[in-house]
Design goal:
It is a single chain. The chain has 8 helices and no strands. The chain is an all-alpha fold and about 160 residues long. The protein has one domain.
Length: about 160
């Protein structure tokens, strides 16, 4: 098996693992009150790093998992707000308005992070301006999504 095939197999396995984890979280197999929770820190660190991926499926899976787990009492989440914010801004910068689902997932997670009292200091004035510009771009491009407007409400507070 050549390196290209190995990479493709690893990418497919990674996407499958993310989908499996999303399903386990949605079905409450893994939850805030589960015994597995304490073992989630290293896994969530890996998922946070997936936000830097070039693969949209991997990014989308990571966005959804982080959205569901953001309020869990995990040290790795709070310690990595700044890294997540920077990754989300990069994602927004590279997104096309046609990728409605990714836009929704990104703004949904960004809104949750900004709504957290712990994350407020991590957004600089320049980043606030960037987020507002992205909101403006995506609001006019896609009338179907309200996530960007929800994000604007949180920023305004």
């Amino acid at each position: 098996m050549n390196k290209k095939n190995q990479f493709e197999c690893a990418r497919l396995f990674g996407n499958f693992a993310l989908k499996l984890l999303i399903s386990a979280i949605k079905q409450k197999v893994i939850s805030e009150s589960s015994e597995i929770l304490e073992k989630m820190n290293p896994l969530l660190l890996l998922i946070i790093s997936c936000l830097e991926s070039t693969n949209n499926s991997m990014i989308s899976g990571a966005l959804r998992i982080l959205y569901f787990t953001l309020k869990w009492p995990l040290a790795c989440i709070k310690k990595n707000y700044k890294k997540m914010m920077n990754s989300l801004l990069k994602i927004l910068q590279n997104l096309s308005a046609n990728d409605v689902e990714m836009v929704q997932d990104t703004f949904r997670l960004l809104t949750e992070i900004l709504g957290s009292d712990d994350a407020k200091p991590f957004l600089t004035e320049k980043q606030v301006k960037c987020v507002i510009d992205y909101i403006e771009n995506f609001v006019f491009a896609s009338e179907k999504t309200t996530e960007s407007l929800e994000c604007l409400k949180v920023i305004k507070k």
